[in-house]
Hints:
Elements: E1 2-7, H1 12-24, E2 28-34, E3 54-58, H2 64-74, E4 78-81, H3 88-93, H4 95-117, E5 125-131, H5 155-174, E6 178-183, E7 185-187, H6 196-205, E8 210-213, E9 219-224, H7 225-238, E10 244-247, E11 252-254, H8 255-269, E12 281-284, H9 299-305, H10 313-326, H11 328-334, H12 338-348
Parallel strand pairs: 1-2, 1-4, 2-3, 4-5, 5-6, 6-10, 7-9, 8-12
Antiparallel strand pairs: 9-11
Thymidine-5'-diphosphate binds at residues 88, 185, 195-196, 199, 211-213, 218, 220, 255, 287.
Amino acid sequence: MKKILITGGAGFIGSHVVRLFVNKYADYKIFNLDALTYAGNLENLKDIENKANYVFVKGDITDEKFINELFAENDFDGVIHLAAESHVDRSILDPLQFVKTNVIGTVTLLNAAKNNWKDAMEGKRFYHVSTDEVYGTLGDEGLFLETTPYDPHSPYSASKASSDHFVRAYHDTYKLPILISNCSNNYGSHHFPEKLIPLAINNMKNKKPVPVYGKGENVRDWLFVEDHARAIDTIFHNGKNGDTYNIGGFNEWKNIDLINTLCKIMDRKLNRAEGETATLITYVKDRAGHDLRYAIDASKLNKELGWSPSLQFEEGLERTVDWYLANEEWLNRVTSGDYQKYYDTQYDKR
Ligand code: NAD
Ligand code: TYD
């Protein structure tokens, strides 16, 4: 039975990856390692928590002794590393936490893998899940390719860029078998409501102002989270050792157009008059260093490994809104406590 360590499996994308692997690969034992920060939630995995091939391990990727022991005890066949601090606005408030988790945490895992696998690298895989934000920002034209030079602007993207460099350095220096993917913005169920789409759905539902930074003209490429999980499965199994793959939705939206589309869906779902939800849109002070446009060219992944997104955006958004409306308790629980403190710090000054 292969032992696969997935870090950050209680978070948004990680929970979808864990679910896919546990359900699809009965012959793998899946270890979900997560520190359960504000963003990690074991409720995300209720449907698979009792499966025989699933184990949850609570722990911190920056805890060197604990990580070394975990690797020594289990001799993992592969690692899929998603644990991270993931929100740009929080990285502006507290950059050092992003260096600790995203840089030191990643290097701690790399070291443990290198030391544990040193005599038997063959067949092992250290897969690092990263973001398109490492490439910086685009003007009206062009797409990010795997060869686009790194040019991060936020503390979040700088910390992810740094971790990507370390992963490549371990490949070049120690021959660690690695894979990296850089994905565009994800959306879907179990997304923490600090990010644009779930925050907007939550505020629309509660008739609270929907904050749009600047003029709402920034562009993001959106991918349904289950399509990202499928891409990770494809790359983990078929990707070429040492290679990088861009993952994207071929689906660019200006923030304001996306918010207006969501408003229309919410009017319909909540039996509101046409245009009622859109009255909640509130333009607020722009994010510092706000990247104008992200757009991914994912054609390498399509050509070499046959992956493509499965879902149209409108259908994905409908499914996402339906999930949030049906899971009010989940939403209420994750927005109680510390969430309110963060929300007040982040939005009161705007
Ligand atoms: P998330 O914030 O929802 O989840 C992160 C998870 O990591 C949480 O469960 C948290 O408890 C855990 N974690 C944080 N610090 C930890 C630590 N020190 N030790 C162990 N666990 C820890 O993030 P997400 O949106 O699911 O993103 C997952 C990964 O995908 C990240 O590496 C992120 O950079 C990358 N990514 C995200 C997106 C996106 O749109 N969300 C897009 C591209 C890439
Ligand atoms: P976000 O979901 O934070 O993802 P990222 O910054 O990693 O792309 O934000 C998506 C876009 O939405 C980004 O251009 C910032 C903008 N935004 C708002 O306009 N209002 C908000 O309240 C948030 C959280 C984001």
